């Protein structure tokens, strides 16, 4: 019953990885901006990957509903916190020094905060599930998995415009974004 949830979750886990671009360019201000953001992204990426791993560990058919509920609830809270922290890091870094940087930054922060709020909503839904009725519980998890799939699809674009062009190139040079790309979340996506 929880396998669908784990599959849906793995699709959404790669959202942080949108911060990774490719290429190389020499712009000290932009590199400095990227370092500020990427240094904050790395620990949050690890937190998201860890939450994914915890949920996937509870996908066995013999997992107790109480354990699934508890694990999923904590994982969704961790993900919410991580996306909120990434949004705060992008906000704190300011606009990247590129054309339309302020708009790109504001849109990314708005989307990251929206993803954070969506995970908070999923946590509330999991917390409200009745573990005494296995059928209702499984049905509730299916509904949550459906929402996760939507969240993953919309969230995959969360940082796409922010990391286009020179911003993405600058971010790719930063260890924090490189390491985020090498996280278990990348393998599960």
Record the SSE blueprint.
Blueprint: H1 3-12, H2 28-57, H3 65-93, H4 101-128, H5 134-155, H6 165-172, H7 175-181, H8 184-188
General description of the model:
With 189 residues, the protein is mainly α. Helices cover 74% and strands 0% of the residues. It contains 8 helices and no strands. It has helices spanning 3-12, 28-57, 65-93, 101-128, 134-155, 165-172, 175-181, 184-188. α1 (3-12) runs parallel beside α5 (134-155) and α3 (65-93) packs antiparallel against α4. It is elongated and about 60 Å long. The two termini are 20 Å apart. Mean pLDDT is 79; it is low at 10-25 and 182-189.
Short key terms for the protein model shown above:
mainly alpha; about 0% strand; about 190 residues; disordered C terminus
Structure summarized in a few sentences:
This protein has 189 residues and is an all-alpha fold. The protein is built from 8 helices and no strands. The longest helix has 30 residues, at 28-57.
* Helix content class: over 70%
Query: Runs with pLDDT <50, length 5+?
Result: 10-25, 182-189
Q: What does the overall shape look like?
A: elongated
Structural class: mainly alpha
Mean pLDDT: 79
State Rg.
Answer: 17 Å
Amino- and carboxy-terminal Cα gap:
20 Å
The major sheet is characterized as: none
- Beta strands, count: 0
- Helix tally equals 8
Strand content: under 5%
Order of helices and strands: HHHHHHHH
